[in-house]
Amino acid sequence: NAGVTQTPKFQVLKTGQSMTLQCAQDMNHEYMSWYRQDPGMGLRLIHYSVGAGITDQGEVPNGYNVSRSTTEDFPLRLLSAAPSQTSVYFCATKPLAGRTYNEQFFGPGTRLTVL
Amino acid sequence: AQSVTQPDIHITVSEGASLELRCNYSYGATPYLFWYVQSPGQGLQLLLKYFSGDTLVQGIKGFEAEFKRSQSSFNLRKPSVHWSDAAEYFCAVEDSGAGSYQLTFGKGTKLSVIP
Question: Looking at beta carbons, which residues of chain B come within 8 Å of A92?
Answer without folding.
Answer: 103
